[in-house]
Amino acid sequence: MIQMAVLGFGTVGSGVVELIDGNQDMIRRSVAEGIYVKYILDLRDFPGNPYNERVTHDYQDILDDPEIAVICETMGGREPAYTFTKKALERGISVCTSNKELVAAHGPELLQIAARHNCSYMFEASVGGGIPLIRPINACLTQEKITSIFGILNGTTNYIMTRMEKAGISFDAALKEAQERGYAERNPEADVEGHDACRKIAILSSLMCGKTVRYEDIPCEGISKITVADFIYARKMNMAIKLLGVSRREEDGRFYVRTAPFLVRADHPLHSVQDVFNGVFVHGNMVDDLMFYGRGAGKFPTASAVVSDVVECARNIGRNISCRWDNEVLAISDPLEEVFRYFIRIDSARAAAAKELFGKVTYVEADVPEDDGEAFVTGRMAEKEVLSKIEALGGVKQCIRLLQD
Ligand code: HSE
Description:
Rossmann fold, Alpha-Beta Plaits, nine-stranded mixed sheet, binds L-homoserine
């Protein structure tokens, strides 16, 4: 049997262990000798849990065991995940992870260490939960010049926004619901402020270009300032508001990446991606549009993606599964130059001034309780232009970009 260890016995880690135990028949179709979880690393004990006897608190037990061929890192966070991963790869042990924070921060370095030590670093579950996305980009789309990747990359915020839209409840109430259902963390900042989606679009953009797109360089806005009033106007325009990660290469070489809420038209497939589901669009120069859809979070969807990586590593012991992603940092074009149409809400005192500043706009009429202002959609203009008009107006109530056609 191929022996492995799981680092972190939380939601995803326990899903990995249960899936590997429960799916042995299926696993043996791909890896004849089967796969066995010999160790589970966690700070805690799990009395009464049938897997408790495999729990160790000392990572060295795992590293010093010559039988261990694959490790699943499902701890999350930078440290000690980074150190543990590096040590494993340096010993020729392949590592499979769902940890987007670590992949976004150290992906190319860990991939290079794996290549030098004839093992693999795999991270299918780090983006899009259970959706096969990394492997298709790495293995199936090698003949494509990918010109854009964009989509809904965070299940928690998509759930929150679906509830705000459908039930007309506030952001705070929808967040509370998401927490009660176990989607949102008690500290939901990484999800609601867009950092999680930002890391995921950084990973996808890096794979798209084969170089490093640093998530710190990506403009990032979350959803905490979106209101029920915005959804009422959006519905009137036959649109939905979605938190998107967007990455786009223009023909002249400009390369825009951002994470932000966008208005999405009803005839766009992302419009109907709801609840905790994720949806990702990839455009290649040969294949044209592709869409990937599925559960972007959750115990078994994410574990399924991790275990698919484990099986791939188990079939390639002693060999490196390559991934085109090098250290060279790719500069993102100035986000202030990017052109959009914008949905803007202003209070009535600024309406006349706004009309003068923005010129020809499309007004949106909607019956919005407690909103006596005006709402309109601008023509296409660069971000710097809209920001200077907003400044001249002394601020607006809301400004949301429209997803480009
Ligand atoms: N917090 C993430 C989400 C988990 O809600 O999408 C999956 O990466």
